[in-house]
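U., I forgot to send this yesterday:
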Amino acid sequence: MHLSLSLGLLALASSCYAYPNPDTVTGNTTLHDPSVCKDNSGTYFLFTSGVGIQIRTSTDRVAWTYAGTAFPDGASWTDQYTNTSNGPLWAPDCTYVDGQFHIYYSASTTGSRNSAIFYAKSSTGQPGSFSNEGLVLSTTDADNYNAIDPNLFINGSLWYLSFGSYWSGIKDVTVDPSTGKTTSDTLIALAERTPDNGAMEASVVYQHGDYYYLFTSWGKAGNSTSNTSYNVRVGRSLSSAGGFIDASGVALLKGGGTLVLEAHDSVYGPGGQELLTDNDGPVLFYHYWPATGNKQVLGINRLDFSSGWPVVI
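Result:
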């Protein structure tokens, strides 16, 4: 009874929370689907959706400079999924480990499950330095899940790749660290919802303390200031491979998800999130529509986990 009451009060408190505005950012910050790595020199590398995968850098997490693309000569190996020559690549996910940048990214078209996730790596993170390591997994319209929006989570010596958008939700698969490719055809279901035609995507698994947190974006990405539905949700588990529940005790496989960030003030449709552990703690990166302008921009806020659940600060 006491646990149920505590969870209920936490859920109520989160629904009444006044969100802070995004941190100040300057420079080239018009983008979609941010993922951030920080190398050993302290430089931030921001990878985003676009033709060739866009790259921006910063030395202070405030001022961002456009550097170029990961594949300046194109990515012809993705054409059968983008249905065009050198089409836009979606939702790159960056992990920096042992002096290497590891990028997983997806190729598809809107509303299609003719999709694929690819892998690339680089020792510098600079434009044009990424080697094409090939196809990781793919789906067709015959599958009930979608091979887009990858996220790599490293737990000790084990690598896991979560992915998925709409349809049957978020899946997880094991990855071989030596190749970056899957080690099994077995998929683990992590989260699913049925409202809004199953509108859930952009999974991120993040460890803090004893818990593993699964972040997702809910709703339709939409456009401009009319978007009040897209938002960031979370659940947690003592295992990175499933069993995630929200603050009300609802399993994420049953449509659960505690609200982390939604439209507020001059921020519309926040989502497409990524997390980074920085010198000042956990940091949330996301895109949103500002009150002025017709393109998505970079949002950054720190997260406070002191309650056991992430709170935007």
